[in-house]
Structures are given as structure tokens and as C-alpha cells.
């Protein structure tokens, strides 16, 4: 007999796990959530919130915000007549301290949400022990738990490269990159993906000379080609030195920095000397330590738990959501799947549409998209119409002094259904929501063209892009 019995046990307390637990409890299930991460709160208990709240979305956005303000104070204020006496400087420990406070507030807030929703928090590592009379038996720390339904939300961890040991001081993954104690003079970044661009931007804005080394020949191949082209132009102008088609060679790590050999696109050998190095080359699912084979849980060669469209695993009543399964590694995707699974367990329909999960890169300008890119539509042979409007044609963008970028809308040539929206520009992260709503409801470009948008707002550029699909923009 297990020590504790629950209707639903969630393993992992990140966005996938804590949301699944809250929704399951709301639906009337006796629910527990096990979390084992090393980020302890003042009581010594593991913090909830997973990668996202502790070492991901939230702390990175806090640092992006501070560094953006810093850059604005240095470069944008004078252009609008605001003079600061003396040199603008950054107090890195204060910046990091504020970031940590935000993390504390949000992670402890989830413990509050658990109390409110009557979710039992179990501090400890969860691993399958076998089957019991009433469900699955899972060891959580020192005790055993039996649950009729198990939701696995164990997330992911950074991928490291052989020969480049991460100590999170000189060579950092996302954990160390969010916790520098000073601005390095020279920063190297391996991987021009989302973390590389966001964290590279943070430290560049604060004064680091940043070189980004990317293995693939093209920059941002996952984004719409026009957006990738514009982003490369803008980031390069800002001072990010982005080198694509690079092969990393021997890397020497010393007490004061890194000396890294690499071969460039042109086949020439070069060397990067930097005080600190961020390794951001993707993430791998957390499945080892789950003891999956004990219960026969299907895990792929890449370490992902194999699930169907409804996040069902090969085992009855065992589900998996978030970074540990296929699909984009994004917090909002994990939360969508979490709600879907809890509702399926409750006998409801459950719904998570991966086709309308938006992607956002929180650089400046921000980059956001949903649906298909132009190159994907071309490759699939889909006939489409495109509308593209620059922020330069928008009064609010000009008034704010930030008119970089554009909105591009792609719609089916026959039905006018929106197939993709791609934005590079200020507040793209917020603007994309309108496109997500439209696409989720099968909307057409004409629908957005017929909707009244407040003036003056950046959202008018989305409106104009919808009009431009039909070649009738009013302000461009
Ligand atoms: P996780 O958040 O990884 O949570 C899994 C939890 O399970 C962890 O706390 C882990 O300790 C725990 N765990 C693992 N194994 C066990 C076990 N056996 N027993 C008990 N507990 C266990 N996404 C966005 O959408 N927007 C962003 O802006 C964004 N920014 C990011 C910035 C960075 C620097 C990084 C690294 C990621 C970012 N992400 C962002 C991605 C986002 O953090 C993840 O997609 C999201 O956290 C996934 O949620 P999850 O619940 O699946 O996993
Ligand atoms: P990523 O997959 O976004 O980018 C990794 C990059 O590294 C790729 O461009 C890849 O080609 C490159 N790469 C791989 N091996 C390499 C090598 N040996 N040498 C040079 N380059 C190499 O992964 P990243 O940036 O580590 O982020 C992980 C995940 O976290 C993202 O996929 C994303 O899902 C999530 N995330 C989301 C954010 C957001 O939503 N704003 C912010 C940060 C992370």
C-alpha cells in the first residue's frame, strides 16, 4: 500500500505541471504535484514554476527589460531631448537582484495558487515504481504515491556540447547567462537560436562585445524569410556579430575566459577569445530518472515521451505535456496541453491546437509569428496572397521613435483564410494575439480588414497588412 493516494499525480511543477495540477483540482480531482528542482525557496523547498519561472521566460524578460531601458537611456533619450547628467551606467548586482525578486514573487505565488486550489505539493523527485491496485505507484522522495492518473511534465534541460564543460561561471548555459555578476568585455555565444539572440542582446546592450557562432548556414531558418533577413540586418547594425555556417573546434577554458577555435562559412579557421561563453544549442527532454521502463512507458530515441495529439502516452491514464513531448518548447504550449489533459481526464473534449501556437523572440525589435511562413507555403505548393506593411507607415510607431520592422500577412489565394502572420517590430509579442485569435476561429484576412482598430496604435499595422492582402491598404 502506497503512503499516499491521489486521483491525479503531476510529475514536474513547471508551466505544464502546475497548470495541469490546478486545472485537475478545479475539476474536482484529488491532485498532487511533485517537484524536485535544485532552486530552493527560503524554506528550503524546491521552487515551483520550472524552467520558465526560475531560469527561463521570466528572468530573461526581466533582464531584457532592464537592458532595454539602459539602451533607451543611452541612445533614445538624447534623440527626444532628454538629457541625463553624466554617463549612464549599469549596476549589475541591482539588476540581477530585481530579477531574482520577480522570480521569488512568481514562484511563491504558485505555492499560493496550489493552496487556493487544494493541490498537494510534494517536494521530491518522482519516478515510477510499478502498478498498484488503484493505479500507478510513483516514488516521490522518501514516500510512495499511488494515483489513478499520472501527468508527466518533467520539462527539459540545456543541451551541452562535448569538450565545452559548462560551469555556469565562465561557460554558461541559460542558468549562468541569467546571473552574470558583471558585464563581460567580450562574450561568445554558441547558437543563434532564441536564447542566443535574447541573452546576446541583453549583454550587448549593457556594453559587451558579442559574437554569435551558429552552425547552420542560414540565420533564423525557422522564421519567415523576410523576417529573418530584416532581423539579421537590424541585429548586425545594433552590434551583434553573427556568424553562420560555423563549425566549433577545440575550446580551451581558463580561469579568465575561453579561447575557441572555429571554422567559418568560407572554410577559414579562426579563433574567438572571450571572457565568457554562453552555450545555447537547444534543450533535451528530462526523462532519465523517471524509471519509465518499469511501467513500459514509450520514450523515443531523442528522450521524448511519445504521445498522440491529445498527449496520451502508450500507457492508459498516463499523459505527458510540455517540453518533454514533441512540438515547440514553449511555456504557453505546455500550459495549453496541461489544460487539455486535465479536461480529458474529466471526460471533457480537451483541445490544444499546435498550429496556432505563436512564437516570440523578445529582442528589440521583437519578433512574433503564428502559422506558416512564406517559404513553407511555397514548399507545400499552397497558393497564397501576401500583405506587408512597414511600421514606418504608422503614426504611433513614428511618434514613439521606434518604426523598425513590418507586419506580413499570408492568406489562402482562394479562400482568403489567414495562413500565417509574421511581425518584426515593437510590441510584436502583444500584436500577434490578434492573429492567433483570427486563425483559431478560421478567420480570413478580410475579417481583420473589416475590424475597427484603435487609432493611433501599432495594431493598425496588422489592420493595414490585412488590407494589403487585398491590395487596398489605406496608409501605405
Ligand atoms: P519545465 O518548465 O522545464 O518544468 C519541468 C519541471 O519538472 C522542472 O521544475 C523540473 O525540476 C521538474 N522535474 C523534472 N523531472 C522531475 C522528476 N522526475 N520529479 C519531479 N520533478 C521533476 N518559453 C516561452 O513560451 N516564452 C519565453 O519567453 C521563454 N523564454 C525562455 C528563456 C530561457 C532562457 C529558457 C531556457 C526557456 C524559455 N522558454 C520560454 C521555454 C520555457 O521555459 C519552457 O518551454 C517551459 O518552461 C516548459 O514547461 P514544462 O512545464 O514543460 O517544463
Ligand atoms: P534553439 O533551438 O532556439 O537554438 C539553438 C541554435 O543553436 C540553433 O540555431 C542551432 O542550429 C544552433 N546550434 C546547435 N548546435 C550547434 C553547434 N554545435 N554549434 C553552433 N550552433 C549550434 O535553442 P536555444 O536557444 O538553446 O533555446 C532552447 C529553447 O528554449 C528554444 O527552442 C525555445 O523553445 C525555448 N526558448 C524560448 C524563448 C521564447 O519563447 N522567447 C526564449 C528562450 C528559449
UniProtKB/TrEMBL annotation:
Q: Which residues cross the membrane?
A: none
One of the record's GO cellular component terms? cytoplasm
Which residues does the entry assign to the active site, renumbered to this chain? 455
Domain named Pyridine nucleotide-disulphide oxidoreductase dimerisation is located at 357-466
Q: Which parts of the sequence bind NAD(+)?
A: 191-198, 214, 282
Domain FAD/NAD(P)-binding: residue ranges: 6-338
Q: Per the UniProt entry, what is one GO biological process?
A: 2-oxoglutarate metabolic process
- Specify the domain of life of the species encoding this protein: Bacteria
Subcellular localization is given as: Cytoplasm
Gene Ontology molecular function: dihydrolipoyl dehydrogenase (NADH) activity; flavin adenine dinucleotide binding
Keywords linked to the UniProt accession: Cytoplasm, Disulfide bond, FAD, Flavoprotein, NAD, Nucleotide-binding, Oxidoreductase, Redox-active center
State the Pfam families in the record: Pyr_redox_2, Pyr_redox_dim
Instruction: Say if the entry is tagged with keyword Heme.
Output: no
Major subcellular location class = cytoplasm
Which pairs are disulfide-linked? 52-57
Q: Could you say which cofactors this protein requires?
A: FAD
Cited PROSITE patterns = PYRIDINE_REDOX_1
What does the record note about the cofactor?
Binds 1 FAD per subunit.
UniProt record similarity statement: Belongs to the class-I pyridine nucleotide-disulfide oxidoreductase family.
Q: Any further remarks?
A: The active site is a redox-active disulfide bond.
What protein name applies here? Dihydrolipoyl dehydrogenase
User: What is the originating organism of this protein?
Assistant: Aromatoleum aromaticum (strain DSM 19018 / LMG 30748 / EbN1)
Taxonomic lineage is: Bacteria, Pseudomonadati, Pseudomonadota, Betaproteobacteria, Rhodocyclales
Amino acid at each position: 500500500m502506497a503512503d499516499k493516494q491521489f486521483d491525479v499525480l503531476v510529475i514536474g511543477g513547471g508551466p505544464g505541471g502546475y497548470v495541469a495540477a490546478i486545472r485537475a483540482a478545479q475539476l474536482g480531482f484529488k491532485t498532487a504535484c511533485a517537484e524536485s528542482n535544485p532552486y530552493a525557496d527560503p524554506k528550503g523547498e524546491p521552487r515551483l514554476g520550472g524552467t520558465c519561472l526560475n531560469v527561463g521566460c521570466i528572468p530573461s524578460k526581466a533582464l531584457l527589460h532592464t537592458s532595454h531601458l539602459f539602451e533607451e537611456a543611452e541612445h533614445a533619450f538624447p534623440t527626444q531631448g532628454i538629457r541625463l547628467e553624466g554617463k549612464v551606467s549599469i549596476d549589475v548586482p541591482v539588476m540581477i537582484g530585481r530579477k531574482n525578486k520577480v522570480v521569488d514573487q512568481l514562484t511563491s505565488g504558485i505555492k499560493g495558487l496550489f493552496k487556493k486550489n487544494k493541490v498537494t505539493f510534494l517536494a521530491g523527485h518522482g519516478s515510477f515504481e510499478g502498478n498498484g491496485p488503484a493505479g500507478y505507484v510513483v516514488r516521490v522522495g522518501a514516500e510512495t504515491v499511488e494515483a489513478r492518473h499520472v501527468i508527466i511534465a518533467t520539462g527539459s534541460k540545456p543541451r551541452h556540447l562535448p569538450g565545452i564543460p559548462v560551469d555556469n561561471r565562465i561557460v554558461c548555459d541559460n542558468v549562468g547567462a541569467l546571473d552574470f555578476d558583471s558585464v563581460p568585455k567580450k562574450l561568445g555565444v554558441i547558437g543563434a537560436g532564441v536564447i542566443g539572440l535574447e541573452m546576446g542582446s541583453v549583454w550587448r546592450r549593457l556594453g559587451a562585445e558579442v559574437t554569435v557562432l551558429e552552425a547552420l548556414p542560414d540565420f533564423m531558418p525557422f522564421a519567415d524569410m523576410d523576417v529573418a533577413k530584416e532581423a539579421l540586418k537590424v541585429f548586425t547594425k545594433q552590434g551583434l556579430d553573427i556568424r553562420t555556417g560555423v563549425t566549433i573546434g577545440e575550446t580551451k577554458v581558463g580561469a579568465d575566459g575561453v579561447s575557441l577555435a572555429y571554422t567559418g562559412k568560407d572554410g577559414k579557421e579562426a579563433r574567438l577569445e572571450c571572457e565568457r561563453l554562453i552555450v545555447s544549442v537547444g534543450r533535451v527532454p528530462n526523462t532519465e530518472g523517471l524509471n519509465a521502463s518499469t511501467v513500459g512507458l514509450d520514450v523515443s530515441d531523442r528522450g521524448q515521451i511519445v504521445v498522440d495529439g491529445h498527449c496520451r502516452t502508450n500507457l492508459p491514464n498516463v499523459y505527458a505535456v510540455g517540453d518533454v513531448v514533441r512540438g515547440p518548447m514553449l511555456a504557453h504550449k505546455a500550459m495549453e496541453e496541461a489544460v487539455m489533459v486535465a479536461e480529458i481526464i474529466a471526460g471533457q473534449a480537451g483541445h490544444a491546437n499546435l498550429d496556432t501556437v505563436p512564437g516570440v523572440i523578445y529582442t528589440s525589435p521583437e519578433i512574433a509569428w503564428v502559422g506558416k511562413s512564406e517559404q513553407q507555403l511555397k514548399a507545400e505548393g499552397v497558393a497564397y496572397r501576401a500583405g506587408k506593411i512597414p511600421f514606418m507607415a504608422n503614426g504611433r510607431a513614428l511618434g514613439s521613435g521606434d518604426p523598425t520592422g513590418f507586419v506580413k500577412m499570408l492568406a489562402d489565394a482562394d479562400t482568403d483564410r489567414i495562413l500565417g502572420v509574421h511581425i518584426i517590430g515593437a510590441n510584436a509579442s502583444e500584436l500577434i494575439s490578434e492573429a492567433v485569435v483570427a486563425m483559431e476561429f478560421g478567420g480570413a484576412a478580410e475579417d481583420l480588414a473589416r475590424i475597427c482598430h484603435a487609432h493611433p496604435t501599432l495594431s493598425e499595422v496588422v489592420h493595414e497588412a490585412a488590407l494589403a492582402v487585398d491590395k487596398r491598404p489605406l496608409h501605405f
